[in-house]
Amino acid sequence: MTEERMNMSAPEDGSEDFAALLAEHDAVADRVHPGQKVTGTIIEISGDSVFVNIGIKIDGVMDRKDILDADGKETLAVGDTIELYVTGVSSQEIRLSRSMGGSGMAALEEARDAAVPVDGRVVATCKGGYTVEVLGKTAFCPGSQMDAVSVADAESMVGRTLQFLVLRVENRGRNIVVSRRALLDRERQENLEKVLAELNVGDTVEGRITRTAPFGAFMELAPGVEGMIHLSELSWSRVNSADEAVAVGDMVRAKLLSVSKDDKGRTRISLSRKKAEGDPWLQAADRLAAGTVVEGKVVRIAPFGAFVELLPGVEGLVHLSEMSWTKRVNKAEDVVNVGDVISVKIKEINVESRRISLSLRDAEGDPWQDADQRFAAGTVVTGTVESRSQFGLFVSLAPGITGLLPAGVIKNAKNSGEFSKLDKGDSVTLVVQSVDTTARRISLAPEGMEEASAAEDKSWKQHTSSAPKDAGMSIMAQALQKALQNKR
What we know:
This protein is an alpha+beta fold. The protein has helices spanning 3-8, 18-31, 104-114, 181-198, 273-277, 281-287, 360-364, 371-374, 407-412, 416-421, 449-456, 458-465, 475-487, and strands spanning 37-46, 49-53, 60-63, 81-89, 94-97, 118-126, 129-134, 137-142, 161-170, 175-179, 204-213, 216-222, 225-230, 251-261, 267-272, 293-302, 305-311, 314-319, 341-350, 355-359, 380-389, 392-398, 401-406, 427-436, 441-445. The strands form five sheets. A five-stranded mixed β-barrel has the order 1-2-3-5-4. A five-stranded antiparallel sheet has the order 8-7-6-9-10. The protein has a five-stranded mixed barrel with strand order 11-12-13-15-14. The chain has 13 helices and 25 strands. The chain is 23% helix and 38% strand.
């Protein structure tokens, strides 16, 4: 010890103030104790000693050999941080060590009494556990004491050098029991106390995902200290299993929700990853706009439509009526399935009520938008019979566009018998009589019907000429209107 350090521990008049020394010893003992793990900074290397500042009035001292490598070179320097164990405490110094060294019974008993770890080499498996060489002696480590969790492959531990606590030394060294789990549990408890002292509910922490379970994922806050992120707190999106949101090894941020004790007295730390990311609906108004077409993933099917996720945690509804222009949809499953990525048009956004109305059919485009150009009056078209009714034949001309060949027109056609034989799915060629895009109606007639009707059917002339030219009333609309009047 340097002269300055010696002077710090004795009064200037050379007398020994035992009361002061005792008070100082008690103060130090309240802060550190043998077996405790501490972190310090190397402040001096002198002779065979290394002095370490561990944050209290008295510096710690360790043997210089603890920082030498196999070639005798120093592996640490002044200013470096090091983790050590307290091996002894007095009013003048605190003895430190990386682990208990030496050999023989005295060293083993000292390690046991001071609860200081010893280095041990696992040499073999045996009944109930492992054979371990420690400080020149053969010890036994029960299988349950090798790790904090059950070791799946016992042979994988053989040959490894690890740190253990000496639990028992009996029968002059013939019965030595060591435990690695006791050391891990002690370190975990120390780390847990440190974590709980530094954190408050609502704080955001960062850690590594260590394992997943059916109910969530575990995140390491400090060595041996884990918090649990429940499945419902992993993501704003709906997830069925933890691996849909995270993977072992991922570094994630989470918010501390609560700290509690279970019925066995174990500390439970609850975390939320999604709350650390912020409410996605707060961003929805900035990132989504009514009238735009966006991509989303179908996440749920309901009797009235399908829910589509547009942003993580932000879903909109495609009602059944907004699913298709081409057919009547009774079940969403007839059009989409969970997991499908589809394009939808945003019809309306209400952030306050967290509702978004979507349209699948509008995203695909309204087939009637340019129907008056594609199916102008006089255009010859070929379509497929969709159905037959009292009003005539409904004929599909294009996806989402259906025209009507009125029953009265069929009756007056020269080849009416051929039209009477047509059934669903049959192909037929006709001519467009009129188009009403507002009412979404197209009237059809057989080819050449205009000339034939002018010569042979006066009632047809009267029927067609009675329709106002600018009223937009199609033949199909007229037929429906006439049927309603007859019903009355």
